[in-house]
């Protein structure tokens, strides 16, 4: 299996799924630069659970803290959705209901390696809860590692982005949205 990277179009589609429109102020050249930098940085890496989470965290931090969108809240929300979209692309079944991950992504001090570990821990905890195996970290890691599959194709990504955008909206409570922007 070979690593597959998101492109600027995938990020714009994620933004559209989450916010319902793409503003003219979106800097697509900055998105292209981000995707090229991440692609070059991780080109040649082996496909592994750690690498997939590291790349997802890289997308999140780069998108949340660059100038591709004038509204930093919308940029962070799209960064979070893009991070989870990258994970889902490989069969890692996470949704956008973890408010603490969004808050971590928004913080300027967050580094990709720290975010990757925190996100992987969330995923392992969800596996533990699902299988009622709270003390079996090695088993949870094996289950997580076995869930990795061939990356989704482009047309499947659009459907996944829409589904994840719904989990983003429903994740916090019935009354509130995870979103910070109005």
Note down, in words, how this protein is organized.
With 182 residues, this protein is mainly α. The chain has one domain. Helices cover 64% and strands 0% of the residues. The chain contains eight helices and no strands. The chain has helices at 8-19, 28-42, 49-64, 72-89, 99-106, 112-131, 137-146, 154-170. It is globular and about 45 Å long. The relative contact order is 0.17. Mean pLDDT is 82; it is low at 170-177.
Mean pLDDT: 82
Tally of domains: 1
Distance between the termini: 41 Å
The total of beta strands comes to: 0
Features:
single chain, 182 residues, mainly alpha, 8 helices
Provide the fold topology.
Elements lengths: L7 H12 L8 H15 L6 H16 L7 H18 L9 H8 L5 H20 L5 H10 L7 H17 L12
Task: Summarize the model shown.
This protein has helices at residues 8-19, 28-42, 49-64, 72-89, 99-106, 112-131, 137-146, 154-170. It is an all-alpha fold.
């Amino acid at each position: 299996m070979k690593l597959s990277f998101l492109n600027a179009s995938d990020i714009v589609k994620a933004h559209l799924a989450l916010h319902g429109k793409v503003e003219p102020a979106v800097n697509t050249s900055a998105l292209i630069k981000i995707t090229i930098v991440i692609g070059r940085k991780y080109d040649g890496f082996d496909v592994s659970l750690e690498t997939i989470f590291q790349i997802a965290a890289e997308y999140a931090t780069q998108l949340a803290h660059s100038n591709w969108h004038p509204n930093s809240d919308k940029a962070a929300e799209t960064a979070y959705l893009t991070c989870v979209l990258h994970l889902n692309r490989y069969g890692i079944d996470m949704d956008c209901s973890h408010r603490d991950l969004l808050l971590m992504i928004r913080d300027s001090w967050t580094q990709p390696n720290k975010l990757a570990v925190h996100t992987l821990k969330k995923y392992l905890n969800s596996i533990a809860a699902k299988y009622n195996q709270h003390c079996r970290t090695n088993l949870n890691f094996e289950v997580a590692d076995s869930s990795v599959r061939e990356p989704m194709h482009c047309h499947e990504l659009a459907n996944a982005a829409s589904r994840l955008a719904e989990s983003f909206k429903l994740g916090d409570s019935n009354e509130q949205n995870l979103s910070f922007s109005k």
